[in-house]
Amino acid sequence: RKEVEQDPGPFNVPEGATVAFNCTYSNSASQSFFWYRQDCRKEPKLLMSVYSSGNEDGRFTAQLNRASQYISLLIRDSKLSDSATYLCVVKGNAGGTSYGKLTFGQGTILTVHP
Amino acid sequence: NAGVTQTPKFRILKIGQSMTLQCTQDMNHNYMYWYRQDPGMGLKLIYYSVGAGITDKGEVPNGYNVSRSTTEDFPLRLELAAPSQTSVYFCASSKTDRGYEQYFGPGTRLTVT
């Protein structure tokens, strides 16, 4: 089983649609969770952190379910500019060392069309 | 404030050649990382550094070497390039590893033929 699994898509949605992405992780000791966005042929950039109580940033809502080891990202009122690959990222337990490894999912491709 | 810069942007190597990918950050971050990203795959950690003079292996270190003589620079050395090293290489930095955002450079697209 992959450490972080995402549905690669692609998701093709019209402008204004609501779309949700899911992600599962295998390490129950994982401590921090993030969604990164990667535009075509560009570097990843942090979209938002994911908190246990769930959090919202404008049109974006992230949820975490530790019991099910599941993370989600909801995008409301999709814009053309939301077209990108969304990477689910999990930070593991440092285990006594000073470093906690980031593990990236393969990404979910979103295309928003007019 | 340029953030994380990488050179070169593109490179084609012949099998067996060597090269160094350069990475510099101007944010005074202690932590720096090298990742590779193969098509349709997530990023894999090659090496990381928690400060000048300290480096350690990530998931896929074979065929690579790093050094960290200053806080700003973290070059990645490829020795005896192989086709399996064809990939996009990203350098990143973060203030610490405790949940802080990692900032990525624009990447180096490397082809080994």
> Which word captures the global form of chain B?
globular
Average residue-wise pLDDT of chain A: 91
Q: How much strand of chain B?
A: over 45%
- List the secondary-structure elements of chain A in sequence, H or E: EEEEEEEEEEE
Radius of gyration of chain B: 13 Å
> What proportion of the residues of chain A form beta strands (DSSP E)?
over 45%
Largest sheet of chain B: 7 strands, mixed
Helix content percent band of chain B: under 10%
| Poorly predicted parts of chain A | none
* Largest interface chains and counts: A-B, 23 and 22 residues
What is the rounded Rg of chain A?
14 Å
Distance between the termini of chain A: 37 Å
Give the rounded overall mean pLDDT of chain B: 93
Please tag this protein with its features.
heterodimer; A: mainly beta; 6-stranded mixed β-sheet; 5-stranded antiparallel β-sheet; B: mainly beta; 11 strands; 50% strand
Describe this structure in words.
The complex is a heterodimer of chains A (114) and B (113). Chain A has 114 residues and is mostly beta strands. Helix content of chain A is 0%, strand content 53%. Chain A contains no helices and eleven strands. Chain A has strands at 4-6, 11-14, 19-25, 32-38, 44-50, 55-57, 60-65, 70-75, 84-91, 102-104, 108-113. In chain A, strands 2, 4, 5, 9, 10 and 11 form a six-stranded mixed β-sheet that branches. A five-stranded antiparallel β-sheet of chain A has the order 1-3-8-7-6, with no helix packed on it. In chain A, strand 4 and strand 5 (44-50) form a beta hairpin. Chain A is globular and about 40 Å long. The mean pLDDT of chain A is 91. With 113 residues, chain B is mainly beta. In chain B, 0% of the residues lie in helices and 50% in strands. Chain B is built from no helices and eleven strands. In chain B, strands 2, 4, 5, 6, 9, 10 and 11 form a seven-stranded mixed β-sheet that branches. In chain B, strands 1-3-8-7 form a four-stranded antiparallel β-sheet, with no helix packed on it. In chain B, a hairpin with a 2-residue loop joins strand 5 and strand 6. Chain B is globular. Chain B starts with a strand and ends with a strand. The A-B interface holds A 4, 8, 31-32, 42-46, 49, 87, 91, 94, 98-107 and B 31, 35, 40-45, 48, 50, 56, 58, 90, 97-99, 101-102, 104-107.
